[in-house]
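Contributing new records

If you add data, match the layout below exactly. Sequence lines come first and carry their own label; structure lines follow with theirs. Keep one chain per record. Anything else will be rejected by the validation script.
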Amino acid sequence: MDNRLSTAQIEHYRRHGYVSPLPALRPAKAEALRLRLEAFEAETGQKAGSLRKKGHLKLMAIYNLVSHPAILDAVESVIGPNILCWATSLFVKDPYDPGFVAWHQDSHYWELEPDDVVSAWIALAPSTLENGAMRVIPSTHLTSPFDHRASAADSANMLSGREEIAVDIDESQAVDLVLRQGEMSLHHVKIVHGSPPNRSAARRYGLAIRYVAPHVRNEDKWTSALLVRGRNEPSNFMPDPVPTRDMDPDIVAFVDRTWKRQR
């Protein structure tokens, strides 16, 4: 089934920097991946949230998802037919945990240009107001970049770099991206977004897949990505290795080594 965005949805993304909710996975498929993440935790003693950076190269269940046609159809509508998966991030919020995602712009620390970069945020379990659904400030992708600073030392900010926007954000303008299990949102690399803590008894699972067009570049850093649709032309990214099993030691070492160079 073709899952490309309608003209109205594409216009909404261009004007407001996001579009939501969108179909992505059948609930049963989303639930199967959620259960696989719980199994990963039991097998390794690691939290599923540790599968950031390029988790799709570490866990086959995520690798198989990043090229899902329904996701790529929607992504193609906003960045074109040639699509690379640059990174994946799992955001898992435990029940009643104080962890939150501070207001930030991904473009501040990714340093990718031009801005043909989009995140597909997929709800592996329902994402609700109570458990800390993502929020966006519409149209901020069209403004000048915001200054960022490091969060306070005692902050529960979940971002790996602990960034936050350095000025007050008018939260009355925020839109909550509530999603059912298996639905997704798309958001622009420059939009201001974040999410509050989980105030519910249910764990929240979200997978963010970072897609880029091949002509996107980073002048100062060596970058790699996985081709998931079309052609890697013109190419500014080295090809990622293709995993054949979970947590392959060589691929894990590759991810940890190269991500330090990309951040």
